[in-house]
Amino acid sequence: MADDPLFRPLIETARNLREKRITAGELIAAAIARHERFGEKLHAYSHWAPEQARAVARAADAAFAAGVSAGPLHGMPVSIKDLFAASGYPCFAGSSRRLPADPWERDGPLVATLRRQLGVIMGKTHMVEFAFGGTGHNSHWGAPYNPWDVAAHRSVGGSSSGAGVSLWEGSAALAFGSDTAGSVRIPASMTGTVGLKVTLGRWSTDGVVPLSPTFDTPGLLARSVADVAYGFAALDPAGIDPVELITRAETRDIASVRIGIGDPFLWRDCDPGIAEAVEEAVKALGRAGAVTRQFQLPEAEAAYAVFMQGSLSAVELRSFLDRELPEWLAQFDPVIAPAVRNAENVSARDYLGRLARLRALARSAAPRLDAIDVIASPTLCLTPPLMSDVVEPEGNLRINRRIVRNTVAVNYLGLCAITLPVGRDGAGMPVGLQLIAPAGAEEKLLAIALAAERVLGTAADRLGTPPLLAA
Questions:
Q1: Of the listed 160, 171, 183, 224, which one is catalytic?
Q2: Mean pLDDT, the chain, as a whole number?
Q3: How far is residue 147's CA from residue 37's CA, in Å, rounded to a whole number?
Q4: Is the separation of the CB atoms in 186 and 220 below 8 Å?
Q5: In sequence order, which residues have a C-beta less than 8 Å from that of residue 129 and are 6 or more positions away?
Q6: Assigned domain for 4 exists
Q7: Residue 30 to residues 77, 106, 147: CA-CA distances in angstroms?
């Protein structure tokens, strides 16, 4: 894959496009060819749009020929999760019915930024219905296949279930996802990719079908931290130059970075090989000069306890459906429908009380983070489950609760986080290292993650090629 133009760093691909060493048409043709080769194996997309992609690639090349660079993502292949509204593309949000064209086929701010830069939308990726869950299960559309297991249909995570798969397929170099309780970081960890969850409010959720307006955040997945950093800068409203961000970040060494480790809640009850892989990665960072210290964030466990009382996102999703799509619930995925229906039993007093509890926990947690630069933990505590284990409501709920254990507190406490692949677990599946930072600290978080990646290597370095793509 190292010689494949689709698998080169985004910063290098952008330079090659500008300097006409490769055309957007050639890049997109290669992405389409990868999908033709691996698409049936992986099942990443709910809507594949090669003709639209070719048309945008032609426009991108015409702009380059005229000496115009529309932006950092000019000519780049990008997949978008099927809850991002985009003009000319159907939006199902993982449901069995196409959502109304107004407003769900009208570009939101993030998609509009991509299109202004002549980024190329390859298609819309599979997701859990209305983003309600982390297992990747979808009774309407089926689930993508995890490329790290050739023997069994294993979860790729959710709710952005097709995003990480599209990256390994090679049909996309950057993937749009969303994260309400971990829905970017979970599939990134399970597929051996990198996932960034930004601070609530940093990026607009306009044009994104809501699960929980209180906690929803857009996010990005890519094959390396450097690529995520490039995409973040290209899309961020602050107008950061990607080359400048990466160049500046590259001057930051891992030495003296304060890494908090050892919170019992975040490290306990991990499946074989997970804690060990993350511990070894943290030790490698320590050998490179990082300062590791014992650190506990009791608010993380307390926030998870609020989640276990009953999903706040279920209440907010049910409210959205009742207001905007009242006919949808009758056709809901039977695996997740009970939880959405049961949301009507949560009283307003309980709902508001839980939100108040989380606000108090967020205020309590914020000053603790002054003692460290990032918190390190396993992104997930479990091996990606077999899809056969999540096809019934009880099993799906039980496993989903375990999936989000280490991710949901980041959303509930208003923090930002990134996951990067650092090894494989006892079942040979990817393991993610989660780095958590305070609200609004994305640039610092990315600089630290880039420094960590320089020490630890990328997914290609640490994991190799997914077996399903080598078979």
A1: 183
A2: 97
A3: 14
A4: no
A5: 93, 94, 95, 138, 139, 140, 332, 333, 336
A6: no
A7: 10, 28, 20
Is residue 388 part of the annotated active site? The answer reads: no
DSSP 326: T
The answer as to whether 280 is a domain residue is yes
Q: What backbone phi and psi angles, to 5 degrees, belong to 78?
A: -135, 135
81 in active site: yes
Q: What is the pLDDT of residue 471?
A: 64
Per-residue pLDDT reduced to its tens digit, 69-118: 999 999 999 999 999 999 999 999 999 999 999 999 999 999 999 999 99
Domain span at 15: 9-470
Is residue 362 a contact partner of residue 413, using CB atoms and an 8 Å limit?
Answer: yes
Q: Can you tell me the distance from the alpha carbon of 233 to that of 72, in angstroms, rounded to the nearest whole number? A: 9
Sheet holding 45-48, edge to edge: 45-48, 120-125, 77-81, 174-179, 217-222, 194-197, 416-424, 430-437, 374-378, 258-261, 291-294
Q: Give the count of domains, the chain.
A: 1
**Does 66 have pLDDT greater than 70?**
yes
Residue 444 appears among annotated catalytic residues:
no
Q: Is the pTM of this model over 0.90?
A: yes
> The domain that contains 461 carries what CATH number?
3.90.1300.10
Prior bond to 171 cis, omega within 30?
Answer: no
Domain assignment present for residue 3? The answer is no
What pLDDT, in 10s, does the model give residues 156-212?
999 999 999 999 999 999 999 999 999 999 999 999 999 999 999 999 999 999 999
- In this structure, is the dihedral angle defined by the CA atoms of residues 239, 27, 25 and 37, taken in order, positive or negative? negative
**Given 81, 155, 161, 377, which residue is catalytic?**
81
Catalytic residue among 46, 95, 155, 159: 159
Evaluate whether residue 158 is within a structural domain: yes
Nearest to 417 by CA among 458, 445, 397, 455: 445
